[in-house]
Write a structure and sequence with these properties.
Rossmann fold, globular, AB_hydrolase_fold
C-alpha cells in the first residue's frame, strides 16, 4: 500500500514543532509574548498584534558570560565577569536597559570562573543576584550582588547548584544531583550559619520563603510537598492520585498553587488553596502535554501540545482564569480518535484512524521509568501513520512510571516475562481489528528501542522494528554510567541482570540476544555517531552480528548527531530516517529514503 500524498505534507510538522518548542514564553499581553534566539545571536521578542504593553520589534543582546530571565520583574539579565569586576545589564521586554557594576573579592587561587546566576532577595527584601563562582583550585563561593550595594559572600557547606536564595528568611537551597535518584535539597542559613537541613526531592518553585518540592517515597507515587523555609517544616499538598509533574505558586499573596498532574497519559491542571486545603481541577479543553514555561506576579505561562489537537499557549492569570492562544502546530485534519484503555494489565494510549486499521505500530517510550503521554510524539509521525490507515498503540509497558510502584517494579529482572505480556496484549488487540502479526511493527527510542528489538525476539511473526538510539548493551551501558556517577550502580543492579557470567539471554538487553530476530523481520537501527547517552558502537556491534547471521538489518548512522537532535536540520534527518524505515518495515511505499 502507498502512503497518501495528503499525508506527506505532515512532514513539515516536525520542523514547526522543533522551532516552536525552542521559543521562550516570557509574558502575556492579549496573547503570548514570545522570544526566540535568531541568527544574529540576539533574543527577538514577538508580541500579538493587539498587545497593549509590549512593543514590537524588540531585540535584546545576549553577549554575556551568563544570561538569566527574571520572571518576577520581566527583565532579561546579562552578566559579564571580568576578573573581580561584574557588569550587569538588565533589559526589559520593551528593550530599555539599565547597566550597573559590582566588585567581587579576589579569588584565593587564580581567578574566578562564573558557573551560574540566580535572581534572589537580600535581607532588606530588595531584588539582587547571586553568582556561583569557582576559583582555579575548585573552591566554590556564592556572591550576592546588587546595584549600589556591597557584595555578600557565602561559602556553601553542602555541594550542589543554588536554586533559591532569600535572606529575608535566612534561606539558601542547593540542589545536589544524584544520577537516577531524586536530588538532595540542602537548606542552608547564610546569616546564622545553622546546620543545613536536607531532603530528597525535586525542586519545583520558591516564593516568599516557601517552596514546592516533589517527593517520591520508596514504594509510593510522587507527591507534592510545601516546604516552609523559615520554620523548616513540611506539609503534604492534597493532590490527585496521579503522577505529579510540576507545580508553581500563583504570586497573588494567597499562597495558591498550580499543579500539573498526569492522569491516564494526559496532563491536567489543578489549583490548591492552602486556606481551605481544597484542590480543584481547572477546565481545560482537550488533552496533551503541559509544560510550565514562566511564572511571575502577573500569571503563569504554559505550553500545550498533543498529537491530534496541535499546540497552544496558555496563561493562568492571578484570578485563576485561563487564556488560550493557538500555536503554530495545527490540529490534525483527519478524524482519528484517541483513548486511554487497558489491555489486561497493560495501559496504552490508543490512536485509531477513521477506517478499520490496515496495520499497527506499537510505540515504546524511553526510560524505562518514564511514560507515554499524549504529546506530539516522534514529531508528528503518528499523524502520518493515522493518515495511512495505521493504528498506533502508545504502550506504557510494565516498568513505566505513572501507574503506581507495582507497575514499575514488576518488570525488574523479569523483563522478558513482563514485556512478553505487554506484546501479547497488543497482538490480541490488533487481531480484533483484523490486523495480524505480520502487519505489526515496533517503534522505540533509547530504552524503548531495545524493547522494540526484544519484542521481535519474543514474537518472531511480527513485521519488524525501528529502534532509534537504542540502549542495546545494558551491562556495558551500566558500567559507563557508574564510572561517571557511582549512584547508577545500585540503580541498574536492582533492575537488570548485569553479571558478566550471565548468558546473553539472561541479561536480555545484550547485542547477541537482541540480534536473534527472525529472517523475515526487517530491523532498522537509527543512531547518531556522537550519541552521548547510548553508544553507537553497541548498535554497530548488534547490526554486525545480525548481518553475520544473514538477517535483514540496516544501521542508519547519522554522522555527528547526538542522542536527540540538536538543531532543526538534525531533527528533520532523524524524522525522515525513522519515517522511511518504519514504512519499509510495514511494507508501505516509502516516500523518503534514509539519509546516512
Amino acid at each position: 500500500m502507498r502512503l497518501p500524498d495528503a499525508a506527506l505534507s505532515q512532514r513539515h510538522v516536525s520542523e514547526i514543532f522543533f522551532t516552536e518548542r525552542s521559543r521562550f514564553l516570557l509574558s502575556w499581553d492579549e496573547g503570548p509574548v514570545l522570544g526566540s534566539v535568531q541568527d544574529d545571536g540576539a533574543l527577538h521578542i514577538d508580541v500579538p498584534m493587539d498587545a497593549k504593553r509590549a512593543p514590537t520589534d524588540t531585540r535584546i543582546g545576549l553577549d554575556g558570560d551568563a544570561v538569566l530571565y527574571v520572571e518576577s520583574r520581566e527583565v532579561l539579565v546579562t552578566v559579564h565577569l571580568n576578573d573581580t569586576d561584574v557588569v550587569v545589564v538588565e533589559s526589559g521586554l520593551s528593550g530599555r536597559s539599565e547597566r550597573w557594576q559590582a566588585a567581587l573579592p579576589p579569588a584565593e587561587h587564580g581567578h574566578w570562573t562564573l558557573t551560574d546566576v540566580v535572581h534572589a532577595w537580600d535581607a532588606e527584601g530588595a531584588h539582587c543576584l547571586v553568582l556561583t563562582v569557582e576559583d582555579d583550585a575548585g573552591s566554590v563561593e556564592l556572591h550576592q550582588i546588587g546595584a549600589g550595594k556591597p557584595t555578600r559572600t557565602h561559602r556553601p557547606a553542602m555541594p550542589g547548584q543554588l536554586v533559591y536564595w532569600d535572606l529575608r528568611c535566612d534561606a539558601a537551597v542547593l540542589r545536589e544531583d544524584r544520577g537516577p535518584w531524586d536530588p538532595k535539597l540542602h537548606l542552608e542559613r547564610p546569616l546564622s550559619k545553622a546546620t543545613p537541613q536536607s531532603v530528597e526531592a525535586r525542586w519545583a518553585d520558591g516564593w516568599e520563603g516557601h517552596s514546592l518540592i516533589i517527593e517520591t517515597p520508596p514504594g509510593a507515587e510522587s507527591r507534592l510537598v510545601a516546604w516552609d523555609l523559615t520554620a523548616s517544616s513540611q506539609r503534604t499538598v492534597p493532590s490527585p492520585a496521579a503522577h505529579i509533574d510540576d507545580a508553581r505558586f500563583i504570586r497573588d499573596g494567597r499562597g495558591r498553587v498550580l499543579v500539573v498532574a498526569t492522569i491516564e497519559g494526559s496532563d491536567t491542571l489543578h489549583l490548591w488553596d492552602p486556606n481551605n486545603d481544597e484542590n480543584a481541577q481547572l477546565p481545560l479543553d482537550g488533552t496533551g502535554r503541559l509544560r510550565i514555561r514562566t511564572a511571575g506576579p502577573r500569571g503563569i505561562g504554559i505550553y500545550q501540545v498533543s498529537t491530534l489537537g496541535g499546540s497552544f499557549w496558555i496563561w493562568l492569570d492571578r484570578d485563576a482564569n485561563l487564556h488560550r492562544s493557538r500555536g503554530e502546530v495545527p490540529r490534525y485534519g483527519g478524524r482519528a480518535t484517541l483513548s486511554h484503555v487497558w489491555y489486561g494489565r497493560t495501559p496504552v494510549l490508543r490512536y485509531l484512524p477513521e477506517q478499520p486499521p490496515v496495520a499497527v505500530v506499537v510505540s515504546l517510550h524511553g526510560g524505562p521509568e518514564s511514560l507515554e503521554r499524549d504529546e506530539l510524539r516522534w514529531d508528528g509521525l503518528y499523524r502520518e501513520l493515522l493518515e495511512a490507515g495505521v493504528a498506533v498503540i502508545g504502550l506504557n509497558y510494565c516498568g513505566s512510571t505513572g501507574y503506581g510502584p507495582l507497575h514499575t517494579q514488576r518488570a525488574w529482572k523479569t523483563w522478558t516475562t513482563a514485556f512478553r505480556e505487554d506484546v501479547e496484549s497488543c497482538v490480541a488487540a490488533a487481531a480484533e481489528w483484523g490486523v495480524g502479526p505480520a502487519d505489526i511493527a515496533l517503534l522505540g527510542g533509547s530504552f524503548g528501542g531495545a524493547l522494540a528489538l526484544l519484542g521481535c525476539v519474543l514474537r518472531q511473526d511480527l513485521a519488524g522494528a525501528v529502534a532509534s538510539a537504542p540502549l542495546i548493551d545494558i551491562r556495558r551501558h551500566a558500567e559507563q554510567a557508574s564510572a561517571a556517577d557511582p549512584s547508577y550502580q545500585d540503580w541498574f543492579g536492582a533492575r537488570f541482570e548485569l553479571a558478566a557470567s550471565a548468558t546473553p539471554t539472561q541479561r536480555v538487553f545484550d547485542p547477541e540476544h537482541l540480534s536473534a530476530t527472525a529472517p523475515g523481520q526487517r530491523v532498522f537501527l537509527v543512531h547518531g555517531s556522537e550519541d552521548e547517552v547510548t553508544q553507537w558502537q553497541h548498535s554497530k556491534r548488534a547490526a554486525d552480528e545480525a548481518i553475520r547471521k544473514e538477517l535483514p538489518w540496516t544501521l542508519v548512522t547519522e554522522a555527528g548527531a547526538g542522542h536527540v537532535p540538536a538543531d532543526i536540520e538534525e531533527a528533520e534527518h532523524r524524522y525522515q530516517n525513522i519515517h522511511s524505515a518504519l514504512l519499509q518495515v510495514l511494507g508501505i511505499d516509502p516516500a523518503t529514503k534514509a539519509t546516512s
